[in-house]
Amino acid sequence: MRIILVGYGVVGKSVATILARRNTEKVKDYGFNPKIVAIADIDGAVINPRGLSSEKLEALRQIRPISTDPEYGHPEMSALDVIESVEAEVVVEVTPVNIKNGEPALTHITKAFKTGKHVVTTNKGPLALAMPSLTELADYNNVFFRFSGTVGGGTPMLEFAKHCLAGDKILALRGILNGTTNYILTEMSQNRVTFQEALANAQKLGYAETEPSMDVDGFDTACKVVILANWIMDKKITLREVRRTGIRDVSLQALGEASKRGNTIKLIGTIDGDAPTVKPTEIGKNNPLCVSGVLNAVTFSTEFAGEQTIVGKGAGGPETASAVLRDLLDIRHSLADRQLENLDFGVWRK
Ligand SMILES: NC(=O)c1ccc[n+]([C@@H]2O[C@H](COP(=O)([O-])OP(=O)(O)OC[C@H]3O[C@@H](n4cnc5c(N)ncnc54)[C@H](OP(=O)(O)O)[C@@H]3O)[C@@H](O)[C@H]2O)c1
């Protein structure tokens, strides 16, 4: 499987590392032989049609911009040129998130579909803004589109719902889908620090960006709600349809009063019969959803199996890269199934 990696930041580098490390085992276990044939970032590209060696991938970590690599560098080529002209089966799109217009990822993904390439992304932007049309475009071009790293980092929340609960019907879900806000609310509730102090701690620890709006105003959670609603509950919605309130106005007093009732306040994304919402919500401290620190958790309410909760780390380079590897393997299996179906069809026709 030849791969074009678009973006060589925290996640992109972890994807390169995990593919190099697990390669031998995966070839043995699954007949899966991934090769990164090109990497593109904002300044150009490196291309080797035979696959970049693990030594080269390691060396590229130290080179900035990567396109100045003397052997394989192409400073003149954009990511779009690479997607269009380099022969590969899959594009792994891991550029920064943008929820205003989804770019540059939206254009990268649509170009990949139109040139017959499967796509794996961890970028929520294009999905939050245009998930129904993107999945339709992938189907139309007969390619696979996978994005398990967009929700829950390495924790397989989308797969759990899609595959493990496949025989059941998911009626509703509620989740803590953002580690930064969960850290802030946990700090406020357990250590009685103000929102501003907890935010400053989160920034010091690298959990929150200098510009924290995406997390604290609930946009990140709302993007994940859109992805869950489309992928698991078959609702054709985009970010505009999610009612969203962030955590800036959660006070120490409100947390104290909740605590007296045996509860706490968490930023919860909900999808049920009504419009999807994201808002600070009081929940019981004994509720399985009530996880601390940067953890994420989702409870699925199902018709037959009752409530099922999945908990795990919601972000991190290696964790998210493991989701990318899972998606690549899933594409590998889906391609094998497709080949088998074609074979059966041939036999049937005879
Ligand atoms: N980090 C996590 O834990 C995590 C978890 C889940 C999901 N995600 C998502 O995964 C994606 C990648 O995250 P990250 O942490 O790896 O981000 P990052 O460290 O900022 O890396 C982004 C990479 O994309 C490159 N890039 C920027 N603009 C580009 C363009 N126009 N064309 C091609 N490349 C471009 C950047 O190049 P320069 O460095 O030269 O600008 C950089 O190499 C984001 O959408 C993020 O939301 C991240």
Verbal overview:
This protein has 350 residues and is α/β, with parallel strands linked by helices. Helix content is 44%, strand content 20%. It is built from twelve helices and 13 strands. The protein has a seven-stranded mixed beta sheet with strand order 4-3-2-1-5-6-7, sandwiched between helices. A six-stranded mixed beta sheet has the order 9-11-10-8-12-13. α5 links the parallel β6 and β7 (145-146). α1 packs across α12 (317-349) and α4 (105-114) packs parallel to α5. The longest helix has 33 residues, at 317-349. It binds NADP nicotinamide-adenine-dinucleotide phosphate. Residues 6-12, 40-43, 79, 94-97, 104, 122-124, 149, 153, 315-317, 320 line the site of NADP nicotinamide-adenine-dinucleotide phosphate. NADP nicotinamide-adenine-dinucleotide phosphate is lined by residues 6-12, 40-43, 79, 94-97, 104, 122-124, 149, 153, 315-317, 320.
